[in-house]
């Protein structure tokens, strides 16, 4: 069985073979994209793919807030699908070496199929999507997971993708851009920076588990807490013209927040050999700096738990989803008093290395986000730092409970799912993940 | 243990004791409610309770449609809660004899607590909500069910209520408007017309079950089908001013569809003794005729199944929820060709009495809807009438699978939950429900 080094070598070889180039361009050089006259929304001539519009968000509750921001609107549901197959009784997953223009290293391991509806209905008039037939009923399969999951609520307006894992029952043709990998190999790769892409992490998190050991709170208590958190907030969102957004400024190369915080909208030109079409331009969202995505972990009565946070994000379809303990871009809070900084951010960002159970840099979806990297961490804490009765909006859950919730829509946000894939990778690695292995 | 007749007698006695009157009034006589100047939206002076606005719905997919309609907007999440307690080891449920102005017989059995957020935060300055403390952490309880569930997607814009069943661990004070009833008694009452109100039916459907016998499709296959159905439709909704709605006409007493179909908006004046305040006026939605809400049922390999339909309704938060086999107001289809009538409507409405396993008239929520009655039915079919491979958008499921889905938001619409409570009542009644008792 090839090791992590072999997979990296193969990725490097595919990277060399495809010779792709990505460069920033001014908006005026976008091909097929333009700013719509009255609204200033960034749209494609075909009316498909996605648009960049404006969103006004107001949150009523304990801490009322209101803001405006650019937002990516993409209401079609795409397919993120991993094809699985047993070889000698061991389940393998067919992973793709795929280029996405926003990835810092361009090419990462992605699901077998990663297709917007525009992709597979051929709006772009490119090649057909390889292996798609396994996810659309064309080939016989056994469904292991199939669930609509949200993506970044801070950047997307109600975006969801169908996260699927299906097991092939017959022979599957090979292709040089694809490799069969075991969960063990994927676990090893998930410990490396920028190898397993966001979509792959999200889909892997939806793999059903065997049920876990006894949790601090029962499943019904956990769902009850989620219902309570959803009732506590009233979130109102309204799509508004992009052009009139308060505090956002449009230049020839980018649309920026006037304090240069959060993210900016930019444009790139892409040339590639193994994509469905060989040249295109497109807008991307670019965060200003690396984020932190972290679970604080503790063991109660021998059972590892992580601290989940009920998060309100403007782009969620439902009011609240569970996120990691910390999910923040630290620089966004540089100007605010300590009392308004996200809870546990200092615990996580200044943790002694002996407390860090997992740490790797991963990118968010490279088809929409440019250099959107976050350090994903799991940090062990004690009762003083993270009490068994946590602050409002937080709750201790087991990885098994997160896996149960990941079988349904609207429960785990994309960062929580990414980090769940990392938790599972820690457990699979054994010794390195001992703290979280039941 | 008191029988069904005793409960009806008690309801009649409470009805006599409270002397309430409901009368239609013109909009001009609404007190505290008015039409907002520019939009024509019907709003309360306090800015709370609910508003009647306009909604534009467009559905992209196999059969694109677009329409405009008045819609009730109420974004606060209320609590529908049933308090349970064991007496001699048997679980009892504390049901309330509650008046709602839109119920044809005014007073029906409702959950212990039925409170909008406005109710329990005292916007109306009335009496406090009895037993509310059991649902808000004030009294120790064991949570049996707690889930946000949608209400009528054809009449509400993204309305959800928290459906809760909690078991009291200590003594519970008595009150003359409340009675402890067993599941068996409730099953008997659910076979009567207009006794168990919509909120009670919805909450009872969320009571967890023991898991059922083997279904035709596994749970993961069922969820996969739901994910596929959600991906198949793109639903876009936009709140628009009520005043400019196409095909709707405002008169002094009502707002009607120009073809007098669907429903109309009316106003009523209410006087009552046992409500939180003793007199008020309010708008209500009034359908033009009685609806049909029905499951077609068949038994496969000894296991009873019902035929669920993936429904798109404009007011759903998520695109699709599962509804009954038939959910329709027959008159709305009187003018359309047979091929466009809802599937299975003729099978259900002209079923031979020997095929009818359940039939009772129930009302929808009497706090928002006036005389909104539907005949709830369960009708046995054969392979010719309802094949094991049903038309697109339909799928055979077991009552146990519906119960599993009812533990989560976004799966079962309110009619499906009502009818699930009826299915459970059939099973509890034994002989009468033999066809659906595993």
From TrEMBL, chains A, B:
InterPro entries: EvaA-like (IPR005212), EvaA-like_sf (IPR038153)
Domain of life from the UniProt record: Bacteria
Domain named dTDP-4-dehydro-6-deoxy-alpha-D-glucopyranose 2,3-dehydratase: residues: 5-207, 221-423
Pfam families according to UniProt: Hexose_dehydrat (PF03559)
Protein name in the entry: NDP-hexose 2,3-dehydratase family protein
Biological source species: Actinomadura yumaensis
